[in-house]
Amino acid sequence: MQNEQLVQLAIDALEDLKAKDITVIDVRGKTSVTDFMVVASGTSGRHVKSLAENVLEKVKAQDVRPLGSEGLEGGEWALLDLGDVVVHVMQVATRQFYDLERLWQGAEQSRAQHGEE
């Protein structure tokens, strides 16, 4: 599966469960760790966990094997390592604290068409 398809699959899975403020950051040339970061917000710990689990379920259904995941237990944040795509799902306050968008400022960003409210 190509990177752009994997990004779209993650966005679709997040939108399915009403993730907020979905942002895609193109970090190619900025880091060797990954090519794209998808950042989204959940409204509660349960919502964050459900969003992350839905992404995992959808990518596994497409025979993509995640390299790892972190933070699913707590619900404040979750990180899903899909290789060339890393998905961050966080509660709003946690997202504001870590401010990944500012951290990767200068990298190309786009917002998903849906999920912004």
Rounded radius of gyration (Å): 13 Å
Tally of DSSP β-strands: 6
Strand order of the largest sheet: 3-4-5-2-1-6
| Order of helical and strand elements | HEEHEEEHHE
Low-confidence stretches: none
Would you identify the CATH H-level superfamily? Answer: Beta Polymerase, domain 2
Tally of helical segments: 4
Strand content: 25-35%
CATH architecture descriptor: 2-Layer Sandwich
Distance between the first and last residues' Cα: 30 Å
Coarse structural class: alpha+beta
For the largest beta-sheet, the strand count, sense and barrel status come to: 6 strands, mixed
The CATH class assignment is: Alpha Beta
CATH topology: Beta Polymerase, domain 2
Count of separate structural domains: 1
Return the average pLDDT rounded to an integer. Answer: 90
General shape: globular
- Residues in helix, %: 25-40%
In short:
The protein is α+β, with helices and mostly antiparallel strands and 117 residues long. The chain contains 4 helices and 6 strands.
Layout of secondary structure:
Elements: H1 3-16, E1 20-26, E2 36-42, H2 45-61, E3 68-70, E4 77-81, E5 85-91, H3 92-98, H4 100-103, E6 108-111
Parallel strand pairs: 2-5
Antiparallel strand pairs: 1-2, 1-6, 3-4, 4-5
Give a structural overview:
There is one protein chain. The longest helix has 17 residues, at 45-61. The model has no long low-confidence stretch (mean pLDDT 90). It contains four helices and six strands. With 117 residues, it is α+β, with helices and mostly antiparallel strands. The radius of gyration is 13 Å and the shape is globular.
